[in-house]
């Protein structure tokens, strides 16, 4: 188990360094273009890596190829988000940004859910190597669509030195720092997760089967996709700060519903554990996805012009770092409360702490920039900046 965990941790290498891939794309155009060549090269290498997984002869060969496959996914993610951010930075209109990111994350969630479902079905009939090789299919649409992508030729290249200077200036922006702190509080300090303890609760206390836990995962994925749809169709015209405040409150409230099951009160209401878990997981992911998309839309409007890939990747990396902090906080709280597989007596305390801590980000909302219909409070300092050199 330890060896497997250590090996799989290598696959996060590409995702941790997302700002680096953004910086390379922004500063090193190929044939005068910053996005199309990197999209095509990453997709091509991704296809080769996944196909090669079927011929790996040792553990470290497999780990190396799998790491390259994830690296390509990370680069594709950076480039796709940078393309959307290019149309967003310097603008106060969130409509186009909402459509871009809603479409991106919606398709990403849908494709991931379908692939996992199909892969699980194929594993019953084919070897794992053969199923892994099918992962190359996810890159094929990118290879087909990239040549059709229209991109303006870069007339002046941004040097690495100039890019670091812009990043330093970018980080000094009070609006940028406010969003950094808010995202970190929302995803990390304010969101310790009790998934590990809840897993033991589901399997040992409620006796959920592996097949049903798979259904719970599907329910969460459906909730995520619907959350993206709801955000784009109903929430994208709302003012960003009030919406973030309301979604933060709703997110904490929905998460707190888990206490009903932990305390076994759902049985008093006549609600079966299976139904309760499916519905609760669905709504938890739905609200969390809306909150995340709103934060990404806000971040995209603050990206610095001409280094959109780097700056947006920096925002996303802060979010990823927050997730890591959430895991560490959860581990610490679990140890302090002496929660183990055989002792879940304090699980309700952990759940309560996790839910209430989600409100940590709420006091930070008034310090966020305004990107909606209140232009008087929105200064040029929070806009994307055009650079030269």
From TrEMBL:
User: Which key words are in the record?
Assistant: Membrane, Signal, Transmembrane, Transmembrane helix, Transport
Show the SUPFAM superfamilies listed in the entry: MFS general substrate transporter
- Record keywords: Zinc included? no
Task: Name the domain of life.
Answer: Eukaryota
Q: Which residues form the signal peptide?
A: 1-22
Q: Where does the sequence pass through the membrane?
A: 38-56, 63-84, 104-123, 179-202, 208-231, 243-263, 275-300, 347-371
The primary site where this protein sits is membrane
Q: What topology does it adopt in the membrane?
A: Multi-pass membrane protein
Where is it localised?
Answer: Membrane
Gene3D superfamilies xrefs: MFS general substrate transporter like domains (1.20.1250.20)
Tell me the InterPro entries matching this sequence: BT1 (IPR039309), MFS_trans_sf (IPR036259)
**One Pfam family of this chain:** BT1
- Return the similarity comment: Belongs to the major facilitator superfamily. Folate-biopterin transporter (TC 2.A.71) family.
Full protein name:
Folate/biopterin transporter
UniProt source species: Prorocentrum cordatum
């Amino acid at each position: 188990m330890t060896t497997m965990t250590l090996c799989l941790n290598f696959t996060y290498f590409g995702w941790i360094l997302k700002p680096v891939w953004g910086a390379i794309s922004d500063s090193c155009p190929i044939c005068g273009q910053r996005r199309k060549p990197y999209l095509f090269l990453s997709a091509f290498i991704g296809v080769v890596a996944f196909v090669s997984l079927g011929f790996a002869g040792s553990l470290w060969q497999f780990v190396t190829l799998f790491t390259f496959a994830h690296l390509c996914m990370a680069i594709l993610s950076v480039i796709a988000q940078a393309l959307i951010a290019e149309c967003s930075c310097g603008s106060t209109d969130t409509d186009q940004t909402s459509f871009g990111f809603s479409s991106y994350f919606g398709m990403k969630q849908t494709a991931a859910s379908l692939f996992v479902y199909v892969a699980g079905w194929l594993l019953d009939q084919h070897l794992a190597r053969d199923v892994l090789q099918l992962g190359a299919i996810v890159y094929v649409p990118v290879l087909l669509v990239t040549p059709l992508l229209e991109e303006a030729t870069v007339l002046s290249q941004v040097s690495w030195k100039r890019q670091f200077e812009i990043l330093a200036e970018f980080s000094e922006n009070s609006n940028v720092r406010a969003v950094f702190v808010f995202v970190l509080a929302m995803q990390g300090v304010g969101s310790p997760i009790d998934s590990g303890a809840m897993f033991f609760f589901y399997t040992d206390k409620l006796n959920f089967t592996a097949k049903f836990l798979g259904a719970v995962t599907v329910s969460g994925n459906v909730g995520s996709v619907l959350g993206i749809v709801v955000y784009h169709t109903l929430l994208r015209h709302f003012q960003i700060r009030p919406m973030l405040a309301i979604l933060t409150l709703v997110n904490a409230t929905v998460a707190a519903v888990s206490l009903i099951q932990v305390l076994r009160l759902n049985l008093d209401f006549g609600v079966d554990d299976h139904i309760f878990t499916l519905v609760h997981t669905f709504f938890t992911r739905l609200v969390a996805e809306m909150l995340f998309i709103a934060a990404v839309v806000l971040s995209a409007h603050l990206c610095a012009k001409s280094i959109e890939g780097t700056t947006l990747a920096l925002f996303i990396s802060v979010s990823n770092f927050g997730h890591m902090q959430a895991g560490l906080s959860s581990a610490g709280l679990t140890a302090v409360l002496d929660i183990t597989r055989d002792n879940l007596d304090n699980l309700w305390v952990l759940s309560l702490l996790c839910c209430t801590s989600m409100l940590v980000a709420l006091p930070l909302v008034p310090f966020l920039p305004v990107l909606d219909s209140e232009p008087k409070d929105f200064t040029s300092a929070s806009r994307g900046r055009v650079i030269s050199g």
